[in-house]
Design brief:
mainly alpha, 3-stranded antiparallel sheet, 7 helices, about 60% helix
Length: about 160
C-alpha cells in the first residue's frame, strides 16, 4: 500500500494567490461601487490616464492580462464612453485605447473609493506588511517563472 504524498490545496502557491486576489478584489469592488467602476476597469483607466494612449497589446502586457480578457473588460468602458478606441498612430492596423474626458471624470470620482480601500486594507494588514506585500507581489509579477521551471530532465527551462 502506498501513501498518498500529493500536496494538499493549502500548499498550492497559485491557489493561495488567487484566493487572496479574489478576496481583495471583492473588497475593492465594494469600495469602488459608488463610482460605477469595478477594480479592473479602474486599473485600465488609471493606466490610460497615466501613460496616455496605448495599443490593446501594450496595455494587456502592462496589466499582465491576456489580450482577450482585456478586450472583454474594455467593452463596457467603451459603451459608456469612458475610453475611445481608434486606429493606432504608429501602426494603422492596431487599435489604440485612450481615456476620454468622461473616463477621466469617472476616474476622479472613483479615486475616493480606491483611497478608502487602500486605507482600510492598510489598517487591517499594517502599513509595513502592506508595503512589503506590494513589493513582493511586484517582484513576483516581474519574474520570469519559466526560467525557474524544471524541464523533464530536471534542469531549469531557458527561454533563450
Amino acid at each position: 500500500m502506498t501513501a498518498d504524498i500529493r500536496p494538499g490545496p493549502e500548499q498550492c502557491n497559485c491557489l493561495a494567490v488567487r484566493q487572496a486576489a479574489r478576496h481583495i478584489t471583492q473588497f475593492y469592488d465594494q469600495c469602488l461601487a459608488p463610482s460605477g467602476l469595478r477594480t479592473t476597469q479602474f486599473s485600465i483607466l488609471v493606466k490610460l490616464k497615466r501613460l496616455g494612449p496605448m495599443t490593446i497589446n501594450a496595455l494587456a502586457a502592462d496589466l499582465v492580462m491576456d489580450r482577450t480578457t482585456l478586450g472583454r473588460n474594455i467593452l463596457p468602458l467603451q459603451r459608456e464612453g469612458l475610453i475611445a478606441v481608434a486606429k493606432g498612430s504608429a501602426d494603422r492596423r492596431s487599435k489604440e485605447l485612450r481615456a476620454t474626458e468622461a473616463g477621466a471624470e469617472r476616474l476622479r470620482a472613483a479615486v475616493k473609493g480606491w483611497a478608502e480601500a487602500q486605507s482600510q486594507f492598510e489598517a487591517a494588514f499594517g502599513a509595513k506588511r502592506t508595503l512589503e506585500l506590494r513589493a513582493l507581489l511586484h517582484a513576483v509579477s516581474a519574474s520570469d517563472l519559466r526560467d525557474a521551471a524544471p524541464s523533464e530532465t530536471g534542469a531549469p527551462i531557458s527561454s533563450s
